[in-house]
Amino acid sequence: MRFFDPESRPKDGWRARVYSVVFETDTPAGLLFDVLLLIAILISITVISLETVTFFEARNRSALRVIEWILTGLFTIEYIVRLVIVREPKRYIFSFMGLVDLLSLLPTYLSVFFSDTQALQIIRALRLLRVFRIFQIGKLQSEGGSLMRALMMSRYKIAVFLGTVLIIVVIQGALLYYLEHGVNEGFSSIPRSVYWAIVTLTTVGYGDISPVTVGGQFIASLLMLFGYGIIAVPTGIVGAEVAINEFNARIDARLSERVVIHEHNEDCCAGSIPASSIIEGPPHAGATTRSERKG
């Protein structure tokens, strides 16, 4: 709700109670609603996919259509309920998930008047983005926030890395074009050669284009070896940021605990126990305190 839909919670009454179920996951009922909704979306996507399988669709056309219309009816009711319970319906309609909800309904109804609109129902897959609302629960919310912070902290490093990779594939593609275009029809243009460089660098290797000259094969070999390192770099960048954030979070938590203990001691004991004994622990056996030495 906080990320995809606008905050438009009713103040009180039955709308507020229904809102907590439909838009939030803080209650068992809200969590159950989201899980059932995601299951319904998955079933709908499966039905839409099966309709494109010719032999299966020919045998089960009626059943697939009935299931799809039942699910569309349920999704329509859900959409209307969301409009009714929010405080500002206009904000929900034009929010990201509000638009997705509406667009996922239209193809089924349009199929009554127009043909070839059934495939557009795959837009409904975007509604699976609501699964991220479940990640707002407890520990999942904390871990998700940590990962998001790591991604944000490493965005400039990743941008520089991707820019470097882009320059490499453009240069390699241009080299292969000049080496291969006269003897190899696959390298008919620089954009097509850049496509080959990307496929090779990412170690996908479709095999639809391959160099035949000695120079081209040498460059291809270097690009393949370089590709293995390319995969590890973004992982290392993000992994390092995650580790740094986790370390800083633990340090902050430990410092906060020490401050709370120190303040609690001053309130309860009126400062009779030194703060150093709380943070550093009690003195070892046989050691003397400053007051004892003065005595």
Describe the structure.
There is one protein chain. By secondary structure, the protein is mainly alpha-helical. The chain folds into 2 domains: 123 residues, Four Helix Bundle (Hemerythrin (Met), subunit A); 126 residues, Helix Hairpins. Helix content is 71%, strand content 0%. Helix 8 packs across helix 9. The longest helix has 56 residues. Keywords: Ion channel, Ion transport, Membrane, Potassium, Potassium channel, Potassium transport, Transmembrane, Transmembrane helix, Transport. InterPro entries: Ion_trans_dom, VG_K_chnl. It is a multi-pass membrane protein.
Topology overview:
Layout: H1 14-22, H2 28-50, H3 54-85, H4 89-93, H5 96-110, H6 131-134, H7 138-153, H8 155-180, H9 190-201, H10 214-269, H11 275-279, H12 290-294
Helix pairs in contact: 2-3, 3-5, 7-10, 8-9, 8-10
Summarize the structure.
The protein is an all-alpha fold.
Number of helices: 12
User: Helix/strand-derived class?
Assistant: mainly alpha
What is the chain-wise order of helices and strands? HHHHHHHHHHHH
Weakly predicted, low-confidence segments: 275-281, 285-295
CATH fold field value of the largest domain: Helix Hairpins
Q: Please indicate the count of domains.
A: 2
CATH architecture of the largest domain: Orthogonal Bundle
Q: What is the overall shape? A: flat
Assembly classification: single chain
Number-wise, the strands total: 0
Distance between the termini: 65 Å
Q: How much is the average pLDDT?
A: 79
Q: How big a fraction of the residues is strand?
A: under 5%
How can the largest sheet be summarized?
none
Rg: 30 Å
Level of helix content?
A: over 70%
What top-tier CATH class of the largest domain fits best?
Mainly Alpha
